[in-house]
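Dear Dr. L.,

I hope this message finds you well. Following up on our conversation about the binding site, I have prepared a predicted three-dimensional model of the protein together with magnesium ion. For your records, I am including the exact sequence and ligand specification that went into the calculation, followed by the structure tokens. Please feel free to forward this to your student if that is useful.
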Amino acid sequence: MIRYIDDLQLTGKRVFIRVDFNVPLEGRRVTDDTRIREALPTIRRALEMGGKVILASHLGRPKGADPKLSTVLVAEKLAELLGGKHEVIHADDCVGDNVKKQVNDLKAGQVLLLENLRFHKEEEANDEAFSRELAALADVYVNDAFGTAHRAHASTAGMVPFVKEKAAGFLMRKEIEYLGDKVLRNPQKPFVAILGGSKVSDKIKVIESLLPKVDALLVGGAMAYTFLKAQGIEVGKSRVEEGDKLALAAKLLDTAKRLKTPLVLPIDHIVCADPDGKGPVQETPDQVVPADMMGLDIGPKTRAMYTQRIRDAKTVIWNGPMGRFEVDKFAEGTRSVAAAMSINKDAVTVIGGGDSAAAVEQMGYADKMSHVSTGGGASLEFLEGQPLPGIKALETK
Ligand code: ADP
Ligand code: MG
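The resulting structure of the complex is given below.
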């Protein structure tokens, strides 16, 4: 069982919230504050409930303390987003006597943002002594950082057993509700999965986990060409994973056959000799890609077929773009899947995966989906069906 922040008593307690403030920075500017805004409901609720709020996050990949990756800029942005109603104090470390004093001096309504957790290598090493030091700052542990839940680090897993009470925040709850309950455990049928992106090898475990659950698995993206080649279909210069990955694709096709689950491959393509679309772009009449061409998007017949499948579904999970969507000429497949999902109001529609989420965002469909996951790698591992360390740590008997 997992408790949520609302289930706890926070009055006067030191509430340590692991947030995902891993925002993009350019010089002294936060260029995208989405991740900070997404943590606001949990932060606000903890403050309303009378907690003394301590926030902790990693930022970038520092090697030791690096002023360029300090969370100090994030503190300024957060204060602004809280509408100036709460003082946001920045701590110049995340452990140590100074921080302890700052925590003890915290008054209700104030927020203390710790310095970048990854300034200490012990964070990623999930070091026990460091975990205990972090835990010593808190009466209550709350995790709202789904994006790092697939990592067993000190702040996501190691410290949790050393804090008296634990719970998930609102963002974490939404991820578990959609990816866990509405997709993996209790999907309304028909349940359709769409998988694309660059490599079969990245998605093998997801395919294996979803095949027994779905009514159909639709494949697009570069990944489709490894499946086609495994069946002996000519794929020209398309991006294919050779060698044992071909055998693996063949095995997945066999598994699908055995389960009687349609594993649907594109029936036509948008092709070009150049991956950036310089030179003539053509539609193929069938599954075959001409010898000197690359398959860079699903074709119109495939788009129509996938759209129909999506329209008839009650649950749709999508990971991985249908083509090289960064180039406009090859974005139509990805756009048509996003459009079909956004129109189906009777279905639970969920996007997992960094590039797919970015595509949906960029094309303006994000707010028409039931849920767009905030964790790229984490959502993929979640869909593989394995418990994420950051979520497992929150389980109570
Ligand atoms: P996600 O992050 O959503 O899991 P991936 O990282 O697996 O997705 O794949 C995204 C990348 O795959 C994109 O950069 C896209 O350009 C590329 N891609 C998709 N289809 C093709 C294709 N047919 N040929 C080459 N690259 C492709
Ligand atoms: Mg990606």
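In brief: Residues 354-355, 376 surround magnesium ion (ligand 2) (CB under 6 Å).

With kind regards,
A. P.
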